[in-house]
Specification:
261 residues; alpha/beta; Nucleotidyltransferase, domain 5; five-stranded mixed beta sheet; 5 strands; 12% strand
């Protein structure tokens, strides 16, 4: 049986902004899906500790008043989300996130901001404190900071690769419409997480070559596909008059050592 018929975990964050290094978590959701059917479901609401801008409230509907009254502490929410996700990765269960590089990088920045163990540290069982994610300079035989969370399945990255020349938007709502996947309430974390998982299944159903890849190999391919897309987009921007444009091709997680988080 191929991966899209097995257990998948949809993941999504709604946030205070669009910069993954600066934005804060407002809501998060993790939903178990098997063969398109929704199983387990967990949801978080955070009081982000900063004002939620009006344009962000207009997107996801969580007001500052509600977040302050009902939301959990931001460090606790980030810690719980990270523990849940790493539990699935340790079990070999793919985590599906639409535009995973945004959500995982933002979660990583939140962990770093609060001095909590990074996703990589959790995967290696390291109990670290304020220096979480920092490079110690020691040769551990692993990538700096530990293993990258995997397997991750990103319908955004996969769709761009398998249908490169399709015109139109590539946001979750548009791509769900392309594949006939219902999106009940766009920019609700639970709805988006469920739709992302079902979208991954739909893409695999339309593209047998994607379905035939094992989760580990699909993860590796997405690293390559994302890097190639970033290089092409960077070249395009430079041709169009932005000579110093830089598009980060790292996927699915960026954890800069020096970043104003």
């Amino acid at each position: 049986m191929t991966w899209h018929r097995e257990l998948l975990v949809g993941f999504d964050l709604e946030t205070t902004g669009t910069d993954p290094y600066e934005a804060r978590i407002v809501t998060g959701a993790v939903i178990e899906v098997r063969d398109g059917e929704r199983l387990g479901h967990r949801e978080w609401l955070a009081d982000p500790g900063v004002e939620i801008p009006a344009d962000a409230v207009a997107v996801h509907g969580i007001t500052n008043e509600r977040a302050a009254a009902e939301g959990g502490a931001p460090d606790r929410v980030a810690d719980e989300l990270a523990d849940v996700l790493t539990g699935y990765w340790r079990a070999g269960v793919p985590v599906v996130a639409y535009n995973a590089a945004f959500d995982l990088t933002l979660l990583g920045a939140e962990l770093r901001r609060h001095g909590l163990p990074s996703l990589r540290d959790r995967l290696t069982g390291q109990d670290v404190g304020p220096d979480a994610g920092q490079d110690t300079g020691q040769d551990t035989g692993q990538e700096p900071g530990g293993p990258v969370p995997s397997p991750v399945i990103d319908p955004y990255t996969i769709d761009r690769e398998v249908d490169r020349y399709r015109r139109g938007k590539r946001n979750l709502e548009a791509v769900c419409a392309e594949y006939g996947v219902a999106l009940e309430s766009a920019h609700d974390a639970s709805a988006d997480a469920l739709a992302a998982a079902r979208l991954a299944i739909a893409i695999a159903g339309r593209h047998p070559k994607v379905a035939a890849l094992g989760p580990a190999e699909l993860h590796r391919r997405q690293i390559e596909w994302y890097a190639a897309w970033a290089a092409d987009f960077q070249a395009f921007l430079r041709r169009k008059g932005t000579p110093d444009a830089v598009v980060d091709g790292t996927w699915p997680l960026r954890e800069p050592v020096e970043q104003g988080v």
